[in-house]
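Quiz preparation item.
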């Protein structure tokens, strides 16, 4: 059994264990995606199905995040970007928004030490300065605390919108042109990438969306140009190591052509 399996909660029933064992054997450790992005969706439906308040679904979703971060870290994945709160999620009732913000603060508080011990570097992408003060402060603290770590980079997409990100980049580029620091002729794809929140981070290789929805919901619009998509009907609170392995193994069987020929 590879060392990294010890990080995982071992399934209790035999058939799940067997499946995990099969998947582990099929995984090609030399062909791992460098950057995995996940739209953590389906928390509300998970709770409603059980007759629970939506907040319980969000709480349970944090457990999935905790697990998947550990798995990615121990597998040696370089970047994991998780969509936690979109610029459109402000449309939800204030009570739900507040619960999501409280859960973020709680997650960072509880997990920071362990993440740091595992060499995880935390970063945030999105207009995080517009989050409630306690959330933006917790994020700044977590980023500062882990900034020199060299293992998995965990990007938390918070108050993130792909269109917003491109809009912000265009503004910054405009300002630099007006200030004489940049000429319009020097604008190319690489330069634009460098003005995005994800500057310096390679584009996601694998983009995972659980919960059965088949849309991008304003996530990483620029960066996902050539990402491999993986969808699943599994709701995020039920998302576990087996699903992540299934997604990675499926990814490993794909032929990425980037418009060319193989
Ligand atoms: C994802 O779960 C969490 C956030 C969007 C913050 P949802 O809350 O969207 O769950 P569903 O889609 O309603 O089931
Ligand atoms: C996308 O999920 C945003 C996050 C998971 C944070 P949503 O539930 O907000 O997306 P839609 O409304 O189904 O497109
Ligand atoms: Mg949703």
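Solution:
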């Amino acid at each position: 059994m590879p060392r990294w399996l010890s990080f995982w909660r071992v399934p209790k029933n035999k058939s799940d264990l067997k499946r995990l064992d099969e998947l582990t054997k099929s995984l090609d450790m030399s062909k791992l995606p460098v950057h995995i992005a996940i739209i953590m969706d389906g928390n509300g439906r998970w709770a409603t199905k059980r007759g629970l308040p939506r907040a319980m679904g969000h709480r349970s979703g944090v457990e999935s995040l905790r697990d998947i971060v550990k798995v990615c870290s121990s597998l040696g994945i370089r970047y994991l970007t998780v969509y936690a709160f979109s610029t459109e999620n402000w449309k939800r009732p204030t009570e739900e928004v507040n619960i999501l913000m409280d859960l973020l603060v709680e997650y960072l508080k509880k997990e920071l030490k362990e993440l740091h011990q595992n060499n995880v570097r935390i970063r945030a992408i999105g207009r995080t300065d517009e989050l409630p003060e306690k959330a933006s402060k917790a994020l700044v603290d977590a980023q500062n605390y882990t900034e020199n770590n060299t293992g998995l980079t965990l990007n938390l997409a918070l108050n993130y919108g792909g269109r917003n990100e491109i809009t912000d980049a265009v503004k910054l580029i405009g300002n630099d042109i007006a200030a004489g620091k940049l000429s319009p002729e020097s604008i190319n794809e690489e330069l634009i990438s460098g003005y995005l929140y994800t500057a310096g981070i390679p584009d996601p290789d694998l983009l995972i969306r659980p919960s059965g929805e088949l849309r991008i919901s304003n996530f990483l619009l620029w960066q996902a140009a050539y990402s491999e998509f993986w969808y699943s009907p599994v709701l995020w609170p039920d998302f576990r190591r087996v699903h992540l392995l299934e997604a990675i193994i499926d990814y490993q069987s794909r032929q990425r052509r980037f418009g060319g020929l193989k």
